[in-house]
Every structure is written in C-alpha cells, then in structure tokens.
Write a structure and sequence with these properties.
By secondary structure, the protein is an alpha+beta fold. It has one domain: RelE-like (YaeB-like fold). It has three helices and five strands. A five-stranded mixed sheet has the order 1-5-4-3-2. Helix 1 packs antiparallel against helix 2. It is globular.
Length: 99
C-alpha cells in the first residue's frame, strides 16, 4: 500500500499551536502530549487516508484518542491536505468557512 504525503495549512497549524499553548498552561508537558497525539494521527492518516469517515462532502476526519479534537482533511491526487484541527464541541460552521 502506498503512503501519502500531507500538507498542513496555516489555519490548521494555528489550531495546533493554540491547543498546544492552552494545554501547556493547564499542566506541564500536556501540550507535548497533544503534539504526540497529532503526530500519531497524522501518521495513521497518510498510511490509509480513505479509511476514515467522511464528515462533509469530500472532507474526512479522525478523532484524537486522548483529546477532544478532530483532524479534518481532504485528499487530492497523492496528497492529504490537513485544513483544521478542531475541538469537537465547536460549531462546524467555523471550519466549513475554510473550504
């Protein structure tokens, strides 16, 4: 099976950074644990990006196991585009504006 490459958009990178800072304020190294979860999920996505459920039209998602966040992405050719890392309690209209 072929592995895909991925690109993280500026907005998604900002999402990750904001969550990282928030979690580090809550507890030492909790932000680092969040980043590890992100990395694990990204590695799983690129191995088989079509495995994960469609959230909206061509948008797919995976949910982190230890944090209430989902990674939203779409596939074009051999590339996975990560366009949001989104807290599950937020209004989905916010990330839909990024499309």
């Amino acid at each position: 099976m072929q592995s895909f490459e991925y690109v993280i958009t500026r907005e998604a990178a900002k999402d990750i950074n904001e969550a990282f800072l928030f979690y580090n304020e809550q507890k030492d190294n909790l932000g680092d644990e969040f980043l590890v979860e992100i990395e694990i999920s990204l590695n799983q996505i690129v191995l088989n990006p079509r495995l994960y459920q469609k959230e909206y039209k061509k948008i797919r998602r995976t949910v982190l196991s230890k944090f209430p966040f989902k990674i939203l992405y779409y596939i074009e050719l051999e590339m996975v585009y990560i366009f949001a890392v989104f807290h599950t309690s937020r209004n989905p209209k916010i990330w839909k504006k990024r499309l």
